[in-house]
Amino acid sequence: MSLKGRRILLGITGSIAAFKAAELVRMLTGAGCEVRVVITAAGARFVGPLTFAALTNNPVSQDLFSPDQESRFSHLDLAQWADVAVVAPATANTIGKIAAGIADDLLSTVLLAVTSPVLVCPAMNQAMFKNPMVQANLKRLKEFGVEVVGPARGDLACGEEGEGRLSDPGEIIAHIERALSPGLLKGFRVLVSAGPTREFLDPVRFISNPSTGKMGFALARAAWTLGAEVSLVTGPSFLGDLPGVSMVRITSARGMKREVEGLFEDAHAVIMASAVSDFRPLEANTGKVKKEDASLTLDLARNPDILASLGQKKGERVLVGFAAESEDLRENARKKLKAKNLDFIVANDITNPQAGFETDTNLVTILYRDGQTEEFPLMSKHEVAQKVVARVARLLEEKSKP
Ligand code: CTP
């Protein structure tokens, strides 16, 4: 989802993590957002308002009783202006004030007046975060529909370790995108598979393929952004865990089958974007095979076709596959669409250097059950994911109509 032109009201409170808000602002303005900062008196002790004025190209609001500020852009104007309000970092004090409906400074007053989604990103010492009063306040915020993002676990500025770090700016932005999305997949559970599988011959050798997981990760992220509850079953990938997504990391095709089938029961939609190895060594050695002892012929067994078996028990679910083809793209993809009982299949020509494995872009054609096709221009995998997920949302909506 593009954040271009979206209006972000950023509240900054008195935590050492306030310096990270500068990076958040840079990333938001870089994505084309307009940002207005409201900083508390304690926040301004950590990072000067001038920094945020320069980074946002907007005046920084600080004082509820400033006649000058109130006459130009009042606290109510600020509240109405915002598409989303984000408090990052949010201290225990500000969290307590919001939870209690207290309005004793500009930020807490504006937050009472906003009608947009509100995100609160706590940052504090781990003992403060664990305090039952803070926990009760956060629970109350959630009950009122406020989205609480983080905190993350790790080294804290006070020298301790634990839960209390401000979430990474990238993660906060992912939550902003979700809050601003049309939420077409809210209430739906989407299962995505990604990456390659590895089929070990012995502890140091395996059969695999060049899949990186980029397409599947982009799909999981896009579905989560549209409001879905997402599980991602992935083979070995260098890509890190996705915020908000339930991650399951597996190694082999049989491991993927077990995990995917376990999650299938509860899923409303399944998108299989993984490059499952079709074969595995007939025998796997527990110890390393010495080269002098190795036979030069490898006996293989066929792996189960996960998607084909899901197709047989599909029910009302939306089922989507990918087809990696090097020739007769449409014909082969259509065969897979039918054989695996899919709603649609996303076909890509792996001989094109800008499509398929290890690229950031993809060139795809979507083939539907009813014979229709849609051909797309070269797009980033992120954009392809948005298209695919939008079509899943449309099918789910059609299926849920009486
Ligand atoms: N797939 C699967 N289990 C397998 C092989 C593939 O679930 N053992 C899924 C893939 O995730 C993809 C779809 O089936 O969504 C098509 O995969 P692809 O590799 O293009 O085709 P295959 O069915 O393996 O056929 P072939 O390799 O002969 O082209």
Offer a concise description of the structure.
The chain is α/β, with parallel strands linked by helices and 402 residues long. The protein contains 15 helices and 21 strands.
List keywords for this structure.
alpha/beta; 15 helices; Rossmann fold; 21 strands; five-stranded parallel beta sheet; 2 domains; eight-stranded mixed beta sheet; 37% helix; 402 residues; binds cytidine-5'-triphosphate
Which ligands does the model contain, each kind named once? cytidine-5'-triphosphate
Q: Cα distance, first to last residue?
A: 30 Å
CATH topology of the largest domain: Rossmann fold
Largest sheet: 8 strands, mixed
Rounded mean pLDDT is 94
Output the structural class: alpha/beta
Q: How much β-strand is present in the residues?
A: 15-25%
CATH classification, class level of the largest domain: Alpha Beta
From the coordinates shown, what is the CATH architecture of the largest domain?
A: 3-Layer(aba) Sandwich
* Shape, principal axes of CA atoms: elongated
DSSP strand count: 21
Unreliable residue runs: none
Supply the number of structural domains: 2
Radius of gyration from CA coordinates: 25 Å
Helix content: 25-40%
Strand order of the largest sheet: 12-11-8-13-16-17-19-20
